[in-house]
Specification:
single chain; 3 helices; 169 residues; 11 strands; 26% helix; globular
Length: 169
């Protein structure tokens, strides 16, 4: 069985720079308490965006304000009854080895509302600077799936900022 998930890279701009929302994973059946990004497993026939909204609310108390990357959503219904969404997310992951076979979709977004102290199987919900995020990655304090997602996000962020330094106005 393969699990399908959505993950949220929630960002906000501050005077000191961009910050990302992270949380501590708290599941009784798992050892350790790694950091992770908000998100979770898609329910049967639930859309990716509906799952993202539900998981974000359950785990953090926040609502999606907007998706930062163009998703170019196309929805079709085939004559045999299949209703299908096709979109462009920020990133996609697939585990290629390890204890759980899963794949998922990352969305970069902004959110609004008040943070919960504890969410659905989460605690220590809060904003961290990109420097702190990098430090957590270097010290291997993220769950395996989100370690890859955060590394992808930081690489993309650094690449875009490096390109903007060399733009001719």
């Amino acid at each position: 069985m393969i699990y399908v998930n959505v993950r949220a890279i929630i960002v906000k701009e501050t005077p000191a720079g961009e910050e990302v929302l992270i949380q501590r994973r708290v599941k009784d059946h798992e050892k350790g308490r790694p950091f992770e990004l908000p998100g979770g497993r898609i329910e049967q026939f639930e859309s990716l965006l509906d799952c993202l909204k539900r998981e974000l609310k359950e785990e953090t108390g926040l609502d999606i304000e907007n998706i930062l990357d163009p998703i170019d959503l196309v929805e079709t219904v085939a004559k045999d009854g299949f209703k299908v969404e096709c979109m462009r997310p920020f990133a996609v992951y697939q585990t290629i080895d390890g204890p759980v076979d899963s794949m998922g979709v990352y969305f970069r977004c902004k959110a609004k509302g008040s943070l919960l102290e504890k969410g659905d199987e989460t605690d220590m919900i809060g904003w961290v600077s990109l420097e702190r995020l990098q430090s957590l990655i270097e010290h291997d304090e993220f769950c395996g799936v989100d370690k890859a997602g955060v590394e992808f996000y930081l690489t993309d962020y650094n690449r875009k900022n490096a390109q903007s330094l060399f733009k001719v106005e």
